[in-house]
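Protein 1 of 2
SEQ + STRUCT:
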Amino acid sequence: MVYPWHQPLWQDFLKLCQQQRLPHGVLLTGVPGLDLTGFANAAITYLLCHQKDKTMACGRCQSCRLMATSSHPDHQVIAPEEAGKAIKIDQIRSVHEKLALTAHISQWKTLLIAPADKMTINAANSLLKLLEEPPKDSFLILISSQPEQLPITIRSRCQHWHMASPTPDESRQWLQQNGYALSDQQWQLLARIAAYAPLQIKQMLDQNMDEHYAQVVSQYQQIRAGNDNPVHIAANWQQQDLLGILHGLYFYQHQQLMAADNSERLSIEWQLMDCIQATIKLVSSLNNYNKTLLIEDFVVRIRQLSVHDHRIRHTG
């Protein structure tokens, strides 16, 4: 399925196909909630289709039917074997020989790797050989919402296709057209956390995440006020999506930053913002980390900064 926000990149893809200038390797990036995988599958289906027109795959030929059932012999998919795990070198090695063979029913042989930033260093090095000496008539798409986690050697050998989020108005309109009428409060909270990605906002609404983030903000306020046990809050956050919590706090802290009424308060709010940003970066960059220790360190740091904030309030 090609969503409205896919269209600019889809037109670029079609133009490359018509000009026969399609690269062997593509790095497709964008924030979560834009359905990058759906776009990649649509592009590969179009490429492999036997009866495509100028804009879309036919959806009826043998190739399209096989793609619809995830059984196309000329298409390979690599993903972590378990959720949260890494993509291993053996998984990459397994496709080397397959891509070297002649295509079975289509002109092209295709490979989709998602999320590509989950590859181990050894797996990335094995993939590098494919990118440096791509087999004839092969097309590889790497998908990542965190491309900075990929080795520069991989990024430099792929053509970068970045999918932009729709504008705020376009995102909200799509949600309304699909039965999601957000209040202004819901929109202001969820839209910014999701970077205006419609499918991410939709998922948050389906999971009542607006209520969840309100609870997280309340707990954060308790930490700052010194009115709750940091260990208790840390234990609560341990059971939840830590990155989601941090993004919600980032949005709230941005509001606090804008409301700071003097230079000393502004300094404290900036330090709190930096603390949240640093923790987001740390969580995003590590496949394996001690979640309990990281949360406790974060909560203690927030509490320490808040002590200084209390002193400023009382002396101000």
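Protein 2 of 2
SEQ + STRUCT:
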Amino acid sequence: MTKLHCISLPTPFPVGPVNVYLAEGEPLTLIDTGPKTEATRAALSQELARLGHNLADLKQIILTHHHVDHLGLAGEIAAQSYAKIFAHPYNLPWLHDYASTRKHHAQFYRGFWKQNGVPQELIERMLYLGEALTQFRDSHLPVQPLPEGREIHFAGCDWSVYHTPGHAGGLICLWHAQSRTLISNDHILKNISSNPILEPPMSGEATRPQRLRDYLREMNRMAELNPQIAYTGHGEAVRNVRELVARRVAFHHRRADAILSALGARTMSLWELTQELFPALTNDADFFLAISEVQGHLDLLQNDQRIVETFHGEKVLWKRPT
């Protein structure tokens, strides 16, 4: 895929650099943009210049999901280039009205974490962390929807859009069947398992999505395509997709077994189980990710009828069925 260039950009986040992709040809396309920082902006401009382009040349921006390390520069790039921006419809609330959407998520997290035993001081710190991400992106982006089933043209060919929720509810992968090339961004990463981020119910839904179950299902669906290569959102490309997915699925089932073992004959909260599984955590962002992951495994265990949800007042607790 000679017209597709991976550009690694610095971020201020623990995950490290983010990969964006320049697709040459008409329309000149950028897939993801990196966060809105001076270092990222300078690195992107430098890499585009090395390839014979500048920001104003871009005609199309495809956003794989709404996380700030992937879309922060989209607004200012579009303002310079008049490029059209595309993203899955599930991302539109984040892109059209970031402030209101973040507030809605914060209200959900506050209630969910409190109900699941997370200490109030940590709740406030994690909510502040989410608010601090605002500086790395624009509050409103003029975006056109890019749903599953749609094809979009870049790098000289048509690509199929796959909606692959898990790490994020609006995450997409892009697939070129003839070359068996997958742009998997954060859905399939070589060296780490993508965290299934806890999210509130979708608009019109009564229950929150179970993102780890989504993630495992969609990883298997992408593996069934049998990609020759998957271009990732962080780190190196993956060439053994089926083997990697099989290992990831097995890992998550082993983690679910470990949580069941930790539970034993006790009745425990999500927070108590998170502490038991990850006793060394000190970073607020890591607490957020760990709570999301443990809840994902509790969803797996509950769906398999290996644990049941119970309540002590308003507090949610988990135990093995009697």
